[in-house]
Amino acid sequence: MAIYKSILLILFVTLGCKSGTLAYKVTIDRPVCFASCRAYTFTAHKNNIALHVNLKDKSFPVPLSSEQQQTFNTLVQRIKFSALDPFYGRKNVYDIPEVSIQYNQTKTTVKGISYAPEKLQTLLTEISRIVQTIKIEN
Predict the structure, then answer these.
(1) In what order do the strands lie in the sheet with 106-111?
(2) What pTM was estimated for this model as a whole?
(3) What are the phi and psi torsion angles at 130 (to 5°)?
(4) What is the C-alpha to C-alpha distance for residues 70 and 73, in angstroms, rounded to an integer?
(5) What tens digit of pLDDT does each residue of 14-25 get?
(6) What angle do CA 39, 69, 124 make, to 5 degrees?
(7) C-beta atoms surrounding 118 within 10 Å
(8) What is the SS3 assignment for 73?
(9) Quick check: 127 and 43 in contact, CB under 8 A?
(10) Nearest Cα residue to 53 out of 39, 33, 73, 32
(11) 25-30 and 98-103 as β-strands: parallel, antiparallel, unpaired?
(12) Which residue in 56, 92, 103, 111 has a CA-CA distance of 20 to 30 Å to 34?
């Protein structure tokens, strides 16, 4: 019986990977930094993309156009999150913004976007670009 369960599990995972339906969740958090950067939370779960700007303990959803949703979806799918190192950047420097990334159970920290792999840099830069353009009433 255990052998059949193992075969079914392997078959499910293999088919899920080939069809692109295997569930994933990516969360990217950026806290407030010393400069003028904004804190945000970016979440991608399958084809559902959400972006929230955090200001004074409040979270404001950022409306994304279908074109922006598609851009983010493409950028997320290009990155092999499970292959990322646990840390990129300079550990003992405190004035560099830090970004936390979680892919399912795998966690990565980036301290300085320029230290991240190119595909991840592209995603983080696009998120920051949109976050900086958002107008929030205090």
Answers:
(1) 58-61, 48-55, 39-45, 25-30, 98-103, 106-111, 87-89
(2) 0.76
(3) -70, -40
(4) 5
(5) 333 333 444 678
(6) 40
(7) 8
(8) helix
(9) no
(10) 39
(11) antiparallel
(12) 103
CB atoms within 10 A of CB 93: 10
3-state secondary structure 2-60: HHHHHHHHHHHHHHHHHHCCCCCEEEEEECCCCCCCCEEEEEEECCEEEEEEEECCEEE
Residue with tokens 């407030």: 32
- What pLDDT, in 10s, does the model give residues 61-117? 988 899 998 898 899 889 999 899 999 999 888 888 889 999 888 899 999 999 999
Tokens of 40: 């945000």
Give the Cα separation of 88 and 116 in Å (integer): 6
Residues present in the chain in total: 138
